């Protein structure tokens, strides 16, 4: 926006400063995600959301549900782009443009944060957190209210006992691995956290999973998607779209096509599989980068006389956004959420998330400098990494669609790990009475309960 450029002229025209202004947000997010697990355990999921720390998706979330989360993200991106386009008209679009044009856009980010911050106070504590803190009765009441069923309902009791079984399993796993650190003290808990993370690096099959999760997120960011999202107006201006209105309009189209392209992932990702989606998306993105690089290399000094070439380049930026929207946007998160055994899943996903945010920060920081100094080489660079990401998935990442935990262990070279864990889980379930709900002689739940909670029962059967 012209008023923003006028106000921040020295900053936005220095590539290094511009990179820091954008990427400092991602650095903050990276620092935040490092504390998420600790604060969520200590303060509860409820109060860590108030503090602005987002909790990762539940471990059992897979496929379409994770893609649905990505759809919500792309919807937010689309809305934000069009807010920028709309506020650009406040006070005109020329030299006399009001500073409200960009101040309003920035201030509007407060609205969802305030709604979330106030609204979360009315939400109950997480049943899982309540169980982990010895507040079983409260957890049962929360589940009862959430399911709109009495506490002694079979479905509520099953869900409560599954949460309880998982908590006992995690405690017993910790006691088996680190018997000398069970006194509950601050030092012991700190050491437990460190040793749990170190165990991921010491055991080769788990290290393989760490590499798959971390490198998947590395390649997701180095496809250059956030270089496009963060600097789209600048990129479209460099491609010959003069004027803030045109560049913001083209940026808005990026948001629309990425959102629409994510919808097929929600519907079909569990049918097609992870590898075909990721590989095809990577190669399409690589091709788009190379085409844009060629056009920029040929016409970057003469866009005025090659308008059609400029629009072709813009179209391939939009195709790139579509390719990311159906593939690496949702599918990379699906992959890193489902490759872990139960005992280390939370920590494994947190490492992958940390890789995502750190590489996100680096991409955001270096992109303006790259665009300023190597020009079309920036697109060649990201195109090469997109291609390498496709090869990485093709050669080193197994297909994980529909695999059980035991099958996941086999393909990652740790056969027997999940089987042993499953035996302990079954023993715990028997000890706390959960197995009684599988007794064929037990009375069935009321038909209306079953009808209203088909999806919940399906989730139970999938876990079993």
Automatic annotation (TrEMBL):
Membrane-crossing residue ranges in chain numbering: 20-40, 61-83, 103-125, 206-229, 249-269, 276-299, 305-326, 374-397
- Tell me yes or no: is Membrane among this UniProt entry's keywords: yes
Q: Which UniProt keywords apply?
A: Membrane, Transmembrane, Transmembrane helix, Transport
Entry GO terms, CC: membrane
Provide the topology term for how it sits in the membrane.
Answer: Multi-pass membrane protein
Output the Gene Ontology terms for molecular function.
carbohydrate:proton symporter activity
The source's domain of life comes to: Eukaryota
Q: Where is the Major facilitator superfamily (MFS) profile domain?
A: 1-401
Main location group = membrane
Record's InterPro entries?
MFS_dom, MFS_sugar_transport-like, MFS_Sugar_Transporters, MFS_trans_sf, Sugar/inositol_transpt, Sugar_transporter_CS
Record's catalysed reaction(s): myo-inositol(out) + H(+)(out) = myo-inositol(in) + H(+)(in)
- NCBIfam families named among the record's database cross-references: SP
By sequence similarity, the record places it as follows:
Belongs to the major facilitator superfamily. Sugar transporter (TC 2.A.1.1) family.
| Protein name as catalogued | Major facilitator superfamily (MFS) profile domain-containing protein
């Amino acid at each position: 926006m012209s008023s923003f450029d006028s106000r921040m002229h020295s900053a936005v025209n220095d590539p290094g400063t511009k990179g820091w202004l954008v990427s400092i947000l991602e650095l903050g997010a990276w620092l935040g995600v490092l504390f998420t697990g600790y604060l969520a355990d200590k303060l509860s999921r409820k109060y860590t959301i108030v503090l602005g720390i987002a909790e990762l998706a539940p471990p059992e979330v897979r496929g379409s549900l994770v893609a649905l989360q990505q759809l919500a993200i792309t919807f937010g991106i689309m809305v934000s782009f069009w807010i920028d386009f709309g506020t650009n008209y406040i006070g005109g679009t020329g030299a006399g443009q009001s500073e409200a044009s960009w101040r309003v856009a920035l201030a509007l980010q407060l609205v969802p944060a305030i709604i979330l911050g106030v609204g979360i106070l009315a939400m109950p504590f997480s049943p899982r957190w309540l169980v982990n803190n010895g507040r079983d009765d409260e957890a049962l009441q929360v589940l009862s209210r959430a399911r709109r069923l009495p506490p002694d309902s079979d479905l509520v009791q099953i869900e409560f006992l599954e949460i309880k079984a998982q908590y006992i399993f995690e405690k017993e796993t910790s006691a088996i691995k680190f018997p000398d650190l069970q006194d509950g003290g601050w030092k012991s808990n700190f050491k437990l956290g460190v040793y749990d993370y170190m165990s991921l690096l010491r055991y080769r099959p788990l290290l393989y999973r760490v590499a798959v999760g971390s490198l998947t997120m590395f390649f997701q960011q180095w496809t250059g998607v956030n270089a496009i999202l963060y600097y789209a107006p600048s990129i479209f201006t460099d491609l010959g779209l003069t004027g803030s209105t045109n560049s913001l309009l083209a940026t808005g189209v990026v948001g629309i096509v990425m959102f629409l392209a994510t919808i097929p992932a929600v519907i079909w990702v569990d049918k097609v599989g992870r590898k075909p989606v990721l590989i095809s998306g990577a190669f399409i993105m690589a091709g788009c980068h190379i085409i844009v690089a060629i056009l920029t290399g040929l016409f970057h000094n003469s866009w005025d006389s090659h308008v059609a070439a400029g629009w072709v380049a813009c179209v391939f930026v939009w195709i790139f956004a579509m390719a990311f929207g159906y593939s690496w946007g949702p599918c990379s998160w699906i992959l890193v959420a489902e490759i872990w055994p139960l005992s280390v899943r939370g920590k494994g996903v947190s490492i992958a998330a940390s890789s995502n945010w750190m590489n996100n920060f680096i991409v955001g920081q270096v992109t303006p400098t790259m665009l300023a100094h190597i020009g079309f080489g920036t697109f060649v660079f990201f195109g090469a990494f997109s291609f390498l990401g496709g090869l990485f998935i093709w050669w080193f990442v197994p297909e994980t669609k529909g695999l059980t935990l035991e099958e996941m262990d086999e393909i990652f070279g740790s056969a027997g790990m999940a089987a042993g864990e499953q035996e302990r889980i079954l023993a715990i379930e028997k000890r706390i009475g959960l197995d009684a709900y599988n007794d064929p002689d037990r009375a069935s739940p009321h038909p209306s309960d079953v009808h209203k909670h088909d999806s919940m029962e399906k989730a139970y059967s999938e876990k079993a």
